[in-house]
Amino acid sequence: YEFKVRAVADGISGDFSDSVKATTLPAKVTGIKTDSVTTSSIKLSWKKIPSATHYVVYVLRAGEWEKYPMTTKNYMTISGLKSGTKYKFKIRAYNSKTKTYSADSDFYVEKTRVAAVKKLKASSVKTTSAKLNWNKLTGATGYTAYYSTDKKTWKKIKNVTGTTLTATKLK
């Protein structure tokens, strides 16, 4: 847009000022949501901005905003993430014709899935019980143990917060 202003006194207009150019910014990105989550990636999508030609996604890592390459699509999969970790995102719309960015979107927080338990071991196996233990996983706040007699049907034993459990009343 280009703008001019002129003064008015008693209904009589003066000369126009010099003109000034101003470019409007793309609207702020809204409607951010999670489409899918794995142990190492999060796919985000958001509402399209009519004046945007591209979008830039940022993820907060170790206190620094990491900028991902621009995309023309209103979705992106962010890979290389740690399992069981919470991440904060923000997105900006960009118009390549006017070379302008929108304001930052509101922050969006999502957590990657926790990885599979590793090194599960059974010890102190008795007639009707067995002690289970495994390695602690980053981001895990608890664990749920199951048992099966046929590897098809799994029944829950119980939830625990530690990395050991004694399964009892086994047959």
Q: How many strands?
A: 17
Q: What is the global morphology?
A: rod-shaped
- Rg measurement, Å: 28 Å
- Share in β-strands: 35-45%
Secondary-structure-derived class: mainly beta
Description:
There is one protein chain. This protein is mainly beta. It has no helices and 17 strands.
Which features does this protein show?
mainly beta; five-stranded antiparallel beta sheet; 44% strand
Write a short abstract of this structure:
Helices cover 0% and strands 44% of the residues.
Topology:
Blueprint: E1 2-3, E2 6-9, E3 12-16, E4 20-21, E5 33-37, E6 42-45, E7 54-61, E8 64-67, E9 75-78, E10 86-95, E11 100-101, E12 108-111, E13 121-123, E14 130-133, E15 143-147, E16 155-160, E17 164-167
Antiparallel strand pairs: 1-4, 2-3, 5-6, 6-9, 7-8, 7-10, 10-11, 10-12, 13-14, 14-17, 15-16
